[in-house]
Amino acid sequence: MTLIAFHDGVNNSSLVEWRYWASKLNKKVSFVSLIEKQADKAEIALVWNPPEGRLAELTNLKLICSLGQGVDHLWKDRHIPLSIPIIRLVDANMSHALSQWVMAVLLDFLRDGSFYRQNREKREFNKLPQRSTYATKTAVYGIGAIGSVVANKLRNFDFEVTGWAQTRKPHLLFKQEIGTEGFQNLLSNNLIHICLLPLTLSTKKLFNQEAFMKMPKGAYFINAGRGEQVDEIALLNAVHIEHLSGAALDVFCEEPLPVSHPFWEEKKISIWPHVAAQTNPETAVEQVIEAIHAIKSGRVPENIVDPVRQY
What we know:
Elements: E1 2-7, H1 15-24, E2 29-33, E3 44-47, E4 63-66, H2 72-75, E5 86-87, H3 92-110, H4 113-122, E6 137-141, H5 147-156, E7 160-165, E8 175-178, H6 179-189, E9 192-195, H7 209-214, E10 219-223, H8 232-240, E11 244-249, E12 269-271, H9 281-296
Parallel strand pairs: 1-2, 1-3, 3-4, 4-5, 6-7, 6-9, 7-8, 9-10, 10-11, 11-12
Helix pairs in contact: 3-5
């Protein structure tokens, strides 16, 4: 029997959620809350934002599995046992869901959804001139498992897409800009900017005052990467002075977003509560099963995380 320590990001892990995961795995596994003493004997940790130092106490641990595609929550633990393999969930369902969210907020901006909702509230039948959106220049920052799907969906909608990464990905068919110079090129040459990057030391505050001011006047910013990649005050100022037309944000430096945060007062900033793509055990469970089988068989599991790159 394989013992799995489960933690969903809160001190009292959801019994309903881990029972659901257990039902999707098989009878040869049992679940225990990571914060319980019994978890000391666990071989597998299926976790999100675990308490600092707790994973290092699991002496039988053979695999750490992040409950999402992001793994930045694990690096908050200064004592995380880096000798233990770490995997992230790479789920086509999550990529599909997030691409839908990007399309929804982007098309809402381009087709003036906010204006027409205000019309509805005021019972007015006003119109705005329809802007030309064909071949709108769009930058996608981060073109991995999720970003590449988003970029291809945008291309299917006739956006002119360029992706950004640290190294070129030759299997992708859309245009790419690489490294620091490429990042600067994208900032100044695109109307739409979509951040889907993993959070690493090199991406923290990547979108700062200098970056926002280098974007063309009227640009729109979308973030479903991580909140810490954005200087929130710089973004707010860029919207206030109307250099940016607005932003759609699914992630924030502090979550839940505090009720006192100034973003709530800015109508041009769309706020979503980190729901663009949620982990679905129904579609992700096969990866966990295969990873467990790989570890038990002495093989390296898929979607292994490089602690040096932090993703």
